[in-house]
Design a protein that fits this description.
By secondary structure, the chain is mostly helical. It starts with 5 loop residues before the first helix and ends with a helix. The longest helix has about 45 residues. It has 4 helices and no strands. The radius of gyration is 37 Å and the shape is elongated. The mean pLDDT is about 80.
Length: about 100
């Protein structure tokens, strides 16, 4: 009985491994794969633009909020905000009940 050569066994194992792995997952033509890559890149570019717009909007809102807080804390508004010693008014309470509590 003759013994099979090592290269034949290796080739058989390679073919069995290839068959077990199944077909190659990306058998699309190169043009289709290229267009998919271009779509992916353009999607990322659009997302970058959206991210930049969101960041700019947040920065503008932070500036506006800081300006509003400065305006509220200005001395001319201080008496309206200072309610020490005054009773609070429940705006949901009936007007007749306000004087009783």
């Amino acid at each position: 009985m003759t013994r099979p050569s090592t290269s034949s066994v290796g080739l058989i194992l390679l073919l069995i491994g290839y068959a077990a792995a199944g077909p190659e997952p990306d058998l699309r033509p190169r043009a289709v794969r290229s267009s998919a890559c271009q779509e992916h890149t353009s999607l990322h570019n659009r997302l970058d633009v959206v991210e930049k717009k969101v960041e700019d909007t947040v920065e503008k809102l932070e500036v506006e909020l800081a300006a509003l807080l400065d305006a509220i804390e200005a001395p001319k508004w201080r008496p309206l905000l200072d309610n020490t010693g005054k009773t609070t008014v429940d705006i949901l309470e009936e007007p007749e009940q306000r004087g009783q509590s």
